[in-house]
Specification:
CATH topology: Alpha-Beta Plaits
Oligomer: single chain
Number of strands: 8
Number of domains: 1
CATH class: Alpha Beta
Order of helices and strands: HEHEEHEEHEEE
Bound molecules: iron/sulfur cluster
Amino acid sequence: MSKRPNFLVRVLKPFYHVARHALKQPVTHKYPFERIKGFRRTRGYITLNMETCIGCGACGYACPDEAIYFFPVEGRRFTYPGIDYGKCSFCGLCVEACPTSSLAHTDLVELAGDKYSDLVFMPTELKPIDVKDVLPEVRRFLITVMTDDGPKYIVYTEGGEE
Ligand code: SF4
Ligand code: SF4
């Protein structure tokens, strides 16, 4: 049986935890008016590069939620994946399964619509989204920049870039 901490430790421990958290930076953000930078491995909205996609279907086979459908795209040779975000669980298996690295996660997680069909993205819609279009109310706070690792969103506050 584990030994019970002595009386003094039990009395002082809650004060220690309160003091520790009182000194920390708050983690609450005024969402959607403030948005923190996405974390490096966030599995958010998925982009498709149709220039490299070979329409092999591996992403569709890998998807455990049957959220990927294939559609012809005018002027292009293959059928390409579209994603039903109403079903997608953002597991990332499709991204991992793609042999040509044509799918990539972004750190954008704001996806909502007035009706179900708003959540079904055709292949041509799986492109980097400008977050300003998704959340117009945060227009002056956010910009999108393209980096080697894909699109990144930068938060602007009155003090400038974070
Ligand atoms: S992230 Fe997962 S659930 Fe979503 S489309 Fe890809 S494989 Fe399917
Ligand atoms: S796995 Fe990659 S190359 Fe194959 S259809 Fe999907 S996105 Fe295209």
